[in-house]
Design goal:
With 372 residues, this protein is mainly alpha-helical. It is built from 15 helices and 5 strands. The protein has helices spanning 3-11, 19-31, 46-54, 72-85, 95-119, 129-138, 143-148, 153-171, 174-188, 202-208, 218-256, 259-262, 266-285, 289-317, 346-365, and strands at 35-39, 42-43, 62-66, 327-330, 368-371. Strand 1 and strand 2 form a beta hairpin. Helix 4 (72-85) runs parallel beside helix 8 (153-171), helix 6 (129-138) packs across helix 8 and helix 10 packs across helix 11 (218-256).
């Protein structure tokens, strides 16, 4: 029956009720779960009833009907499920409002877990697929269904305790930072790992790929393994950096003590020392062993010869040397095409040395100087 029909009936004889009294009685019946108020096919919540009843223009569209009765045990069971699953202390008391509230919360949890799986890079979040499957079976049902046919409460609570809560606690807590730190270490120093002892990173990678990494004390183990691995990486980087820096510093000492340097102009001397300082700074700031070694190799093969040429060129411009300029090359860059195979005897040594001598003489004949 519409609200308009009730109002018209009880305002007429023999009742003679005023509008406000009729609205109060209807609101009381709704509040005590005796009847429901539906507008445009939607059952209104208790919080929406007062405004709807005061809107007299809508009375013709407001349908009042006796509320369905539900098994109190099933209603109590669903209420307990909502309380336990969503950690709520005060779910709605009205059965239909409880059903709508639970349905909305279940849909929200399903969307939340889907977003976690699709947007996460942690391999173990795939285990949320089971709870998601359960939620998909109970989302989108009619309100009555939750009060009469809902039967997956125990399965969902078990999934909450064993999978959902542990994973969400991991993602929202300090354990995530430990995992991220370990993952970043492996990613950042992937090229450095080859310079460590074999299997040095197994402990870290083992936990990172463990499907149960979010359980127990796995993160405590991972933190210890990560700290150990970081120490090893820092040690090998520091060792390689020191070797390369020492080699460059030794070359610098040789260069500064040479006639090339002492006879060069002050400007050339400053440029040379500046370039060496810049190279040493690059070595000091680089964290990848391969690049540290590459800097050292490039300095030896090309930078150092170029510095000698720079010093020599400044002498020629100052008029100290009228001879044509020579290009300086490192002996490490001189190819010996006639030398190949394996040296196994003195005759092999003689042949190699003869080939090397030929290559060196040819380089000198080409107008170049060679640094050892």
């Amino acid at each position: 029956v519409t609200m308009k029909t009730i109002v018209d009936t009880y305002q007429a004889k023999p009742y003679g009720w005023d509008l406000a009294s009729t609205e109060v009685v209807v609101a009381s019946l709704i509040g005590s779960s005796k009847i429901t108020l539906t507008v445009d096919g939607n059952v209104l919540k208790r919080s929406e009833v007062a405004a709807a009843l005061r809107n007299t223009q809508k009375h013709g569209h407001e349908i009042l009907a006796p509320q369905k009765t539900f098994d109190e045990r099933k209603v109590a069971s669903f209420r307990k499920f909502v309380t336990d699953f969503f950690d709520e202390g005060n779910p709605p008391k009205d059965p239909l409002e409880l059903a709508r509230h639970g349905a909305d919360k279940l849909k929200g949890k399903l969307n939340e877990l889907r977003a976690t799986v699709s947007g996460s890079r942690y391999p173990f979040v795939e285990q949320l697929g089971g709870p998601i499957s359960l939620l998909e079976q109970v989302v989108g049902k009619a309100d009555d269904w939750y009060l009469a046919e809902f039967n997956l409460g125990d399965d969902l609570l078990e999934a909450k305790d064993n999978v959902i809560d542990p994973i969400q606690a991991f993602l929202n807590g300090a354990q995530r930072a430990i995992y991220d730190d370990a993952s970043a270490l492996i990613s950042t120093h992937s090229s450095n790992l080859s310079y460590l002892a074999q299997s040095s990173d197994d402990a870290v990678k083992g936990v990172l790929t463990d499907p149960n990494a979010f359980r127990g004390n796995k993160m405590a183990q991972l933190k210890q393994a990560t700290d150990d691995l970081r120490d090893q990486i820092e040690s090998v980087v520091a060792t390689k950096r020191a070797l390369v820096a020492d080699a460059i510093a030794e070359r610098r000492s040789e260069l500064v003590a040479s006639d090339f340097y002492t006879k060069a102009t002050p400007e050339a001397q400053a440029r040379v020392t500046q370039r060496i300082d810049e190279t040493l700074a690059r070595v000091a700031s680089e964290t990848q062993v391969a690049l540290i070694l590459q800097i050292g190799s490039n300095f030896e093969a090309s930078d150092y010869p170029e510095l000698l040429d720079l010093l020599t060129a400044s002498q020629q411009r100052s008029g100290d040397d009228a001879s044509p300029p020579k290009q300086t090359v490192s002996i490490k860059t001189i190819a010996v095409p006639e030398a190949s195979g394996v040296i196994e005897s003195e005759s092999d040594v003689d042949r190699y040395l003869a080939a090397l001598r030929g290559a060196l003489v040819q380089t000198l004949n080409d107008g170049k100087r060679i640094i050892l």
